[in-house]
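Worked example

This section walks through a single chain of length 65. The input is the sequence exactly as stored; nothing has been trimmed or padded.
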Amino acid sequence: MSDEAKKTEKTSWFQGLKAEFKNISWPDRKTLIRETITVTVVSVVLGVIIATLDMVLQYGINFLV
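Given that input, the structure is written out below as C-alpha cells.
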C-alpha cells in the first residue's frame, strides 16, 4: 500500500469519527444528575446486600467449623 493511500485512509477515518461525534446526543444537566444519583444509590444498596450476605455466610461457616 502506498503512502498516499495510508494518509487517505487515516484522513477519512478521522472524518468519520468527527461525524459520529456530531451525532452524539448528550443528556441535559438534570438527567445527568438524576442518573448519577440512581447509579450511586443502587451501588450502595448492592454493596450493603453483598456485605450482609457475606457476614451471614461467614457466621454460618464459622458456626459449622
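What to look for: DSSP finds two helices and no strands in the chain.
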